[in-house]
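Project outcomes to date are best conveyed with an example. Our students and postdoctoral researchers have been running inverse folding experiments weekly, and each run begins with a structure described purely in tokens. The record below, which covers 124 residues, was selected by the lab manager from last quarter's runs and is presented without edits.
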């Protein structure tokens, strides 16, 4: 499934909120266990990453309003909005992971192209 076949809402969500595959995996892990609270150490162990990276990803997702954190620094799934999009993304990532991964990896290229295009000299 090419990224052009991803639903526009999903593509827009990925572009706006998701910076990497590990970022996505943290969100989807918390989504799949909404009753559970996670600290950075448990996230890093589950995803086989380091604690610093897990902390950064959790804090970023919390700042974007996709997850929440309690006073003991445990994170949990509770988006202010976007629940249905995340649910659809969860299904798409498991059914068509290449399309989702491609969209995430293509994102920097799109930004770079837009930036480069801003400096093109237009002929009148």
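After processing, the design step wrote out the following sequence:
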């Amino acid at each position: 499934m090419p990224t052009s076949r991803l639903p526009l809402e999903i593509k827009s969500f990925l572009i706006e909120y998701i910076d990497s595959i590990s970022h996505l995996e943290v969100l989807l892990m918390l989504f799949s266990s909404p009753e559970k609270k996670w600290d950075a150490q448990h996230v890093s162990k589950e995803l086989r990453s380091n604690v610093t990276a897990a902390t950064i990803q959790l804090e970023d997702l919390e700042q974007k309003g996709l997850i929440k954190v309690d006073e003991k620094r445990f994170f949990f799934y509770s988006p202010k909005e976007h629940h249905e999009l995340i649910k659809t993304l969860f299904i798409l990532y498991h059914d068509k992971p290449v399309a989702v991964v491609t969209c995430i990896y293509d994102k920097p290229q799109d930004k770079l192209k837009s930036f480069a295009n801003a400096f093109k000299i237009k002929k009148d």
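Helices lie at 8-17, 21-32, 40-47, 51-63, 83-95, 97-117. The longest helix spans residues 97-117. The training component of this project remains on track.
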